[in-house]
Amino acid sequence: MDRQIVDHQVNGIRMSVLIEGSGPPLLLVHGFPLSHQMWRAQIDYFKNQYTVIAPDLRGFGDSEVTAGTVSMEQHAFDLNELLEQLQIKEPINYCGLSMGGYIAWEFWEHFPQKLHSLTLCDTRSDADTEEGVNTRLKMVDLVLRHGPEAVASAMIPNLLSETSQQQQPEIARNLITQIEATSPEGIAASQRGMAERKDFSKALKQIEVPALVIVGSEDLLTPPDIMQGIYSQLPQARYSEISEVGHMAPLEAPESVNLIMEDFLRSC
Ligand code: MLT
User: Does residue 136 register a pLDDT over 90?
Assistant: First the structure.
């Protein structure tokens, strides 16, 4: 299938999704506060082997916004409904980054039979600490008062390694543009949802699907020791750490991530 960006009515909202390619389904679930655009390099690489499905989650990109709180469970229900509407019958290869990983745990809990494999990039399985919750609520306040411009540039040092910031400045520019284009209510709603998310650490050993755990060696938000903890609990997992890369491994080191994913997906 040629590249299509289409809208679907999903659980009461309009959800925008990019679909391209043919073959087994590969669902790419973006991080916070981004959109499907963060997966550009993966879409281009995998469209020749997979049906790539890259949605904008509720409140992000071109999808409709709901105010209040959007839980990780709600995002998982939206993804399931989207797959139903796209008539994807086959179990999917789910790939999520950070918030996309938090949603993966919920997707697994509610729809385990719909998962063929799981790729988890720069994410965590535990819930927030009290301090973490407070930081999120401060950001909600800031974004609602002053807009996404107030947080976009400040987020970059946490998202990209020093090396990426120096050697690939266009990545930071691209991320800032994506964040600034995001609705303040959309950011606030998922930020509140992340603050309330469940702790899945104890459930990891029950996740029987093949899994790939990818992390940047300089990821400050979900560092390698966190990802090694996830890897050690998942029954069928592989682990890859990519050097000189931060929290956005698929953007900072697309060639490495694509090759690692390709090898993993072929083995599933
Ligand atoms: C993300 O990249 O999705 C965020 O870092 C997730 C978070 O804020 O915990």
Answer: yes
Confidence of residue 165 (pLDDT cuts 50, 70, 90): very high
Task: Decide: helix, strand or coil at residue 48.
Answer: coil
State the DSSP H helix or E strand holding residue 73, giving kind and residue range, or none if neither. helix 72-85
Alpha-carbon distance values, 141 to 67, 103, 130, 150, 177 (Å):
13, 23, 17, 11, 21
pLDDT tens-digit map of 63-89:
999 999 999 999 999 999 999 999 999
Atom nearest to 31 CA in ligand 1: 3
Strand-pair category, 92-97 with 211-216: unpaired
Spell out which residues line ligand 1, taking CB within 6 angstroms.
31-32, 98-99, 194, 221, 247
- Nearest alpha carbon, ligand 1 atom 4: 32
